[in-house]
UniProtKB/TrEMBL annotation:
<feature type="transmembrane region" description="Helical">
    <location>
        <begin position="373"/>
        <end position="398"/>
    </location>
</feature>
<feature type="domain" description="FZ">
    <location>
        <begin position="16"/>
        <end position="145"/>
    </location>
</feature>
<dbReference type="InterPro" id="IPR000832">
    <property type="entry name" value="GPCR_2_secretin-like"/>
</dbReference>
<keyword id="KW-0472">Membrane</keyword>
<dbReference type="GO" id="GO:0004930">
    <property type="term" value="F:G protein-coupled receptor activity"/>
</dbReference>
<feature type="transmembrane region" description="Helical">
    <location>
        <begin position="297"/>
        <end position="320"/>
    </location>
</feature>
<feature type="transmembrane region" description="Helical">
    <location>
        <begin position="221"/>
        <end position="240"/>
    </location>
</feature>
<feature type="domain" description="G-protein coupled receptors family 2 profile 2">
    <location>
        <begin position="215"/>
        <end position="400"/>
    </location>
</feature>
<dbReference type="GO" id="GO:0007166">
    <property type="term" value="P:cell surface receptor signaling pathway"/>
</dbReference>
<feature type="transmembrane region" description="Helical">
    <location>
        <begin position="332"/>
        <end position="353"/>
    </location>
</feature>
<dbReference type="InterPro" id="IPR020067">
    <property type="entry name" value="Frizzled_dom"/>
</dbReference>
<protein>
    <recommendedName>
        <fullName>G-protein coupled receptors family 2 profile 2 domain-containing protein</fullName>
    </recommendedName>
</protein>
<feature type="transmembrane region" description="Helical">
    <location>
        <begin position="249"/>
        <end position="269"/>
    </location>
</feature>
<dbReference type="Pfam" id="PF00002">
    <property type="entry name" value="7tm_2"/>
</dbReference>
<dbReference type="GO" id="GO:0016020">
    <property type="term" value="C:membrane"/>
</dbReference>
<keyword id="KW-1015">Disulfide bond</keyword>
<feature type="transmembrane region" description="Helical">
    <location>
        <begin position="439"/>
        <end position="460"/>
    </location>
</feature>
């Protein structure tokens, strides 16, 4: 083995060869030292006195962080007792403490020493000098002591921490609990332990780093664009004179519902944390955050309003296309009572039982405890029949379209008076269906998009919400995740997500569901932002200009139309 550098060599030479290498007589480091040691000018008693902290350190931390305790003892024993070897000429060779052992101590002990307020015990691997002027040595030329514990046995044992222990400081990314007596309820069991809390929103740590923030920023942008797009259609159908009658009134009300649904993003723009969290630790609910209460109420109301008016649109399409009926034409009072009344009742019920809160995704909604009975089951009562009716309408249209194609092939025989031709009544009915589809195909596509989006959203949360329910009650999984995060110094978020991922909504599906509902307003704009709509705006603006213009009777010419 190579000798230590000149400073260490000089120290070895400065003593007699007989006393340079000394057998370790036993003491604090008996478990770690089985080699001759170099004492230098110090006495054995003085060194043992300096190492008196080791038994106490072992007593305090060995059950909680065995790996840290082992690394701490190995480092200090190798530092205090350099390994000493002599060659055939009795020339001593001294091996000083390893920098890697020091770094292992820092890595495995930082978190536990930080929480207990004992960071002063942590060594500084850069400035530490085993011998004056000589730094810690690389593995090739140092006193390596093999660890006594390794693998799983060296891990963080969070169950060994006393129940009444409160951290002095919390390692990143955790937040010090300034009101531990407030956060000891069962609702905080997975968020606050031993004086440290997961910062709100907790989902930012449960998924890969920055995934949720990036994904929900994207869905917020889409929802913001949807809000603007749906507002344009809403104003168009509200202001333009040709739009305020049946069936355009259905689109008007659906546009209003979609706008309300999309505009909930305005509550989180620029301050997502302020919506989701009442403070650094506590998730928002309607009692501790009025912004969450207002946003959640509007989201619940608009979700059901969108569902109800989409269902009304589907029923109207079915009645008009299949039965040639205009049932809703003179029944808008009833429609408004139903399609705005049901959302109002459900919203008021949610607020009445104080169940509006933020738990995951990016907006406040009904709490997991009540979300099935108050949100998903009532929505299913509206969605499922509407979806089936829409499928029936679609297949009926497809059947008529196919038959229309077949009958067009018979046109030659009909012109020759073939008695197998279509009867006049039947031909009239088929013509009505095709005409209805040509007139209402936009509403048909919107109904498909809205219904499909709501069904996907409903199915996703119906299937994935159970994961959150299981996680909220599973203290073992939360402890395993916390152990993983505290195992050693550094950022372990990406490594630890695999522990909790089976108990959380699937990230890809969650983002897909949020993206689909965020696009509803954009679909509305694409489908109904047609050329004729802008012509109507142009005509109305021109008429207003004529009405208030000093010219009075000037004629409209082609240049006054929008270029389309």
């Amino acid at each position: 083995m190579p000798t230590c550098n000149s400073a260490a060599a000089a120290a070895a030479v400065s003593v007699s060869n007989d006393s340079a290498c000394t057998k370790y007589p036993g003491g604090v480091c008996s478990e770690y030292i089985d080699y001759p040691v170099y004492l230098g000018s110090k006495s054995f008693a003085d060194i043992e006195h300096q190492l008196a902290i080791l038994p106490n350190f072992t007593l305090w931390y060995s059950k909680i962080v065995p790996g840290c305790t082992d690394a701490f003892n190995r480092y200090h024993c190798s530092l205090a007792y350099p390994k000493c070897e002599t060659d055939s000429s009795n020339t001593p060779t001294i091996y000083l403490a390893c920098k890697s052992t020091c770094e292992k101590t820092v890595d495995s002990c930082t978190n536990v020493l930080m929480t207990s307020g004992a960071m002063h015990l942590l060594p500084n691997c850069t400035s530490e000098m085993p011998v004056p002027g000589t730094p810690l040595q690389p593995d090739e030329t140092c006193n390596i002591i093999e660890p006594l514990v390794s693998g799983a046995a060296a891990g963080f044992n969070i169950s060994a921490i006393p129940l009444d222990f409160l951290s002095v400081e919390c390692p990143a990314p955790f937040t010090l609990d300034l009101a531990p007596e407030k956060h000891r309820g069962i609702e905080y069991i997975n968020y606050c332990q031993y004086g440290c809390c997961i910062p709100c929103p907790s989902q930012d740590l449960f998924y890969k780093k920055n995934w949720t923030r990036t994904a929900f920023l994207a869905t917020d942008i889409m929802r913001f664009i949807s809000a603007i797009a749906s507002f344009v259609i809403l104003i168009s159908y509200l202001v333009l004179p040709d739009k305020r009658r049946h069936p355009s009134l259905l689109i008007l009300n659906l546009s209003l519902a979609i706008f309300l649904f999309s505009m909930t993003v305005f509550f989180s723009i620029g301050d997502q944390h302020g919506l989701q969290c009442a403070d650094d630790i506590t998730p928002s609910d309607q009692k501790n955050n009025y912004k969450c209460a207002a946003q959640g109420a509007i989201l619940i109301f608009s979700s059901f309003a969108t569902t109800c008016w989409a269902a009304a649109l589907i029923v109207n399409l079915h009645l008009h296309t299949v039965w040639n009926s205009s049932f809703f034409t003179n029944r808008y009072i009833l429609l408004n009572v139903i399609c705005w009344g049901i959302p109002t009742v459900i919203m008021c019920t949610a607020l009445g039982i104080k169940s509006v809160k933020f738990e995951f995704a990016n907006l406040c909604l009904v709490s997991i405890e009540h979300i099935f009975a108050l949100f998903f089951y009532p929505m299913a009562v509206i969605i499922c029949p509407s979806f089936l009716l829409h499928i029936a309408t679609f297949f009926y249209i497809a059947k008529i379209a196919i038959r229309e194609g077949l009958e067009s092939d018979m046109s030659q025989s009909l012109s020759n008076g073939d008695p197998t031709g279509m009867r006049p009544a039947k031909a009239k009915r088929h013509k009505h269906v095709i005409t209805a589809v040509k007139i209402q195909w936009r509403a048909l596509i919107l109904a498909i998009a809205a219904c499909g989006t709501v069904v996907f959203y409903w199915l996703f949360y119906m299937t994935q919400i159970s994961n959150l329910l299981n996680f909220s009650k599973n203290v073992t999984v939360a402890s395993k995740w916390l152990t993983c995060m505290l195992e050693s110094a550094g950022d372990h978020q990406n490594e630890c997500t695999s522990i909790v991922s089976p108990y959380l909504p699937t990230f890809g599906l969650m983002v897909t569901a949020e993206s689909l509902v965020s696009l509803v307003g954009i679909w509305l704009f694409i489908i109904f932002g047609k050329r004729s709509l802008w012509r109507e705006w142009n005509d109305m603006i021109f008429e207003l200009r004529i009405r208030f213009s000093s010219r009075g009777r000037s004629e409209k010419n082609g240049e006054q139309f929008f270029a389309l």
